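agent> fetching stored inputs for the fe (ii) ion docking request
agent> found them:
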Amino acid sequence: MHCDDLRPASLGLFSEEDLQQPAHIQVLGPQSRVLRGFALPWVEHLLPQLERVLEQAPFRHMVTPGGFSMSVGLSSCGQLGWTTDPSGYRYSPVDPQSSRPWPAMPKVFRQLAQAAADAAGFTGFSPDSCLINCYRPGSKMSLHQDKNERDYRAPIVSLSLGLPAIFLFGGQQRSDKSQRVPLLHGDVVVWGGVDRLRFHGVMPIKEGTHALLGQQRINLTFRQAGAGQEFERKTRSAGQRPND
Ligand code: SIN
Ligand code: FE2
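agent> prediction call returned; pasting tokens
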């Protein structure tokens, strides 16, 4: 056997598309990528801003239309915040707890989200909403689609911080088989285009203590929830670094 025969492709481990991506980019689907460690250079700039946002809009456990209290604590920043209560899911310009507008989205949040969208091939991403999810050991998120946004042309950009998680990335139907994708501190997942409405969720977080964030996982999900905009998909892989 020639040694070339032992390339991962010939073992059927990776698709052609996977092999064309730099090692830190994992292909989940035609228009969905995990950008491994993408946010690590940004974290020290992000955390103080996150703290400021959470002082103004602390985590709270919202109730689903089915009457269940979510195990994940939620907050938001940006022009619109995703909320749920017994009357339904919606985006609101106002934090229902304080009756004030959500805290503004810090510039460095927007820059990170745009750089990640760019790196995954979605140029022109302009998030107006950042949902902040706080998971404690045992917290989980059931399979769902992100479909309260007005326009599905913009991708979803999702940053993981703190404790690791197993992200479930399913198909267009709830019953489709899900991929189990480990997500670590600093990883960013981007899905859009033909993958925009794929079901996804998070398995119960395991006990643990993260060096920076302690016993929690924080997920920042950036969305363009309001006005629509044209999005162009290009194949690019270069990341951008924070400039502040
Ligand atoms: C979400 O879908 O809102 C959260 C996903 C995650 O926590 O990774
Ligand atoms: Fe989601």
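agent> quick read of the result: The two ends are 54 Å apart (CA to CA).
agent> awaiting further instructions
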